[in-house]
Design brief:
Blueprint lengths: L2 H27 L2 E2 L18 E2 L2 H11 L21 E2 L4 H5 L2 H10 L8 E13 L2 E11 L1 H5 L3 H9 L2 E3 L2 E2 L3 E11 L2
Parallel strand pairs: 3-7
Antiparallel strand pairs: 1-8, 2-6, 4-5, 4-8, 5-6
Length: 187
Amino acid sequence: MTHALRFAVAALLCSFAVWWYLRSRDDARTPTVADAPPPSAATIPAGPPRYRPLAPAARAALLAQLDPAHPGAAAPAAPTPAPLAGQVDATAPADSVAAVAPALQACYQQTRASRSTDRVQVDLTARLVGGAAGTVIVDAALTGDAPFTADLELGPCLQAALLAIELPPMINGTAATAAVRLTLADR
């Protein structure tokens, strides 16, 4: 084998190794939503986030509009902002819940020091109440893999983040339950 042929083979192998490394590194850094439990599959929609943070007083006022009988609902003290663009479909809410993954990624990063793994799998079941004024998550049950269970700070942070988010108005009903499996990973 000539030196030129050996050099070409070595260059090809090095190029492949670099490509493989960059591809696997980018895959590990991207938070994904994978394998939502039936009946619907969840994906993170492209475009701007379809949620906004909601202060406790604004949450209580929105809940009063949506479901006056709900515990924690309070009469609005100030005008509520215009509803977000888009819709939460009560017959398929998993996509809308999956869209809040960036807010959950922030909790993952805040509690990262307490974990030795670079990704956590979280199974989320959220109960939503909504209408023309918007949609809120009124209850969120979280379970997950061993790293999630071992991290005592991540679950409460995720729960607080979920309960402090407003989603777009709900169509095809006023209540829904969404089950989503999220994988939160290092960026």
